[in-house]
Amino acid sequence: MMCQSMEDRIKAAAAAQAIEIALRMIARGKMSLEDIAECCDLSLDEVKALAEKNRPAAT
Question: Which residue range is the domain that position 34 belongs to?
């Protein structure tokens, strides 16, 4: 049986990877935020927050 700290590290790594993938998908701008949330197994609120934080600055 896997120890709890190892399970926690695996979950954290998977979450970080999902966020990185979502960020790349947001940057491409070809999918809706709803679709990105579903594909990355993130909540829509999480994806919206990522999109807001990573929006290009107005010039």
Answer: 4-53
Cβ atoms of 42 and 19 within 8 Å: the answer is yes
Give me the DSSP letters along the chain.
Answer: ---HHHHHHHHHHHHHHHHHHHHHHHHHT-S-HHHHHHHHT--HHHHHHHHHHTPPPP-
This prediction has a pTM of: 0.83
Q: What is the mean pLDDT of each run of 10 residues along the chain (59 residues)?
A: 85 96 96 97 97 80
Position 9 in a domain: yes
Structural contact between residues 19 and 8, judged by C-beta atoms closer than 8 angstroms: no
